[in-house]
Design a protein that fits this description.
The protein has one helix and nine strands, in the order αβββββββββ. Helix content is 29%, strand content 32%.
C-alpha cells in the first residue's frame, strides 16, 4: 500500500502541474498570434498617385493599383477645358478648374476593385471618365 500511496501522490502532483503547464503554453502562444494579427492590419505606408483629367478621359498612374493599408494621396490635375472632379472610395475632390489641381487623401482599407470617376462629365463618353482601381 505504501507504494500505491506514492504513486497517488505523484499522480496528484502531475494533475496539479497540468493547469500550470497549460497556462504557460497559452501565454507563450498568445503574444505571437496577437502581434501577427496587428501586423496584418497596420498601415502600409504612404504613396502619391498622379491623376490627369483631359478632354478625352481620366488617366490614373501607377497602373491604377496599390496595396491595402497604404494611405494614398491622389494628385489630380485637370488639363481639360472644363471643370472636373475626381471621386473614389466615397471621397471626392472639390470642383477643379481647368489648369488647376487638387489633392485627395484616401486610406485603402479593403482589398477589391473600386470605381473612380468624374461626376461633372455629362457627355456620352462617360465611360472614358471612369475606370477601375485595384487594391491588392
Amino acid at each position: 500500500m505504501a507504494g500505491g500511496g506514492r504513486l497517488a501522490a505523484g499522480a496528484r502532483r502531475l494533475v496539479l502541474s497540468l493547469p500550470l503547464l497549460a497556462t504557460c503554453l497559452t501565454l507563450a502562444i498568445v503574444p505571437s498570434t496577437a502581434s501577427a494579427r496587428s501586423a496584418t492590419t497596420s498601415p502600409g505606408g504612404k504613396a502619391d498617385i498622379g491623376v490627369r483629367i483631359t478632354n478625352t478621359g481620366i488617366d490614373v498612374f501607377d497602373e491604377a493599383r496599390m496595396a491595402r493599408g497604404v494611405t494614398v494621396t491622389f494628385i489630380v490635375v485637370n488639363v481639360s477645358s472644363r471643370p472636373q472632379n475626381f471621386v473614389i472610395l466615397g471621397k471626392q475632390t472639390p470642383t477643379i478648374k481647368p489648369g488647376h489641381q487638387s489633392r485627395l487623401v484616401v486610406t485603402l482599407l479593403a482589398r477589391g476593385i473600386f470605381k473612380y470617376r468624374s461626376t461633372l462629365e455629362k457627355t456620352t463618353r462617360l465611360h472614358r471618365f471612369s475606370g477601375l482601381f485595384l487594391v491588392y
